[in-house]
Amino acid sequence: MNESAETSGLLQLGWQSFRHLETASIEPRAGINVIHGRNAAGKTSLLEAIHFLARSKSFLTHRVSRVIQTGASEATVWGKVDADRSVHRLGVRHGNGETRVRLNGRDVTVLSEAAWLIPLQVINTEAQRLLTDGPAVRRAFLNWGVFHVEHHYRDDWRRYQRALRQRNAALRHGDRRLAAAWEPEMAAAGEAVDRRRRRFLDELVPRALAMAAAWLPGIDLDWQFRAGWRGGYAFADVLAGARERELAQGFGLYGPHRADIRFTADGIDASGHLSRGQQKLLVAALKMALIEYWGKASTQCPILLIDDLPAELDAPHRQDLTQRLEQSMAQIFLTAIDADQLPSFHEAAWFHVEHGQVSQGPRGV
Length: 365
Ligand SMILES: Nc1ncnc2c1ncn2[C@@H]1O[C@H](COP(=O)(O)OP(=O)(O)OP(=O)(O)O)[C@@H](O)[C@H]1O
What we know:
single chain, Rossmann fold, six-stranded mixed sheet, 42% helix
């Protein structure tokens, strides 16, 4: 249980016209919350509602409008969040192609202000895509990871992206003087982003790989970070050196926006070498290590959403993960079709979902 966490995460969660969930609110506990019910009952929708509150997005679809209940014009999720030693009221609404976020009674225009409150990760059937998809997925994981522990990361990243956009526009127009003029800013912000990313990864990845090694015995796991430009060179020199080629291409080829993390198993790319189940375990280890790191390094309570835990792991791995979840400082929401498929938790809140109706009760009810 979550004794060492200073904050307990979501104290209350409510929704209206969200997927096929009936309008209601629940009071989750710190620690473990189990959501169980039959196929299509609404379990994943409830996890999605938490994700929507934290990030104003779905983890299932790019088309946010799909969260709006059929026949309704807008979907709303609201919550009370214990973070930074106080309780915050957060609300997110989507309708008419627009997402509006309110925090403590005022509109929030910079999304990251609200996203800051809830460090959140998801483990679901798509989890292995962190390894098998393109670098953008790993960069997003990296950006969220650093964002919650390095307070100035957001500003460095924004500065970098602005300089990148301006320099790219100059490259597109063939304006070499303007492109060069943006390089000192792009290099300074890019180097700062890179330093913070490396510091974060050096903390996180060894812990994650140690956890994964226990689940994948006999496999030699390793990783490499690719900054987005050639190792051992100052970014400013790389930009200056690449300028003529980039003018011909019409856009920049190097920088933290091209970064990637490569994971290997026995020296081969993990996405090609590990089974799907093994990939999921590696990703689960990365995400578990991340929420544990967040729990120690940030003043917010991390939240972990796990969709259909029994389907994802065999019994010994499930048991082991369960123990880790119980020791974790995070608030955890996990779904299962049958509560009996889950290992016993010492303390957990149980929510039953049936035809979109959510009710709290003892285990298995
Ligand atoms: N926008 C919407 N409006 C109304 N109903 C919806 C909407 N989106 C999805 N649904 C319905 O919600 C149900 C799916 O809910 P959900 O995915 O949360 O179920 P689940 O309990 O996680 O199921 P499973 O265990 O099968 O994964 C489906 O019946 C689907 O038709």
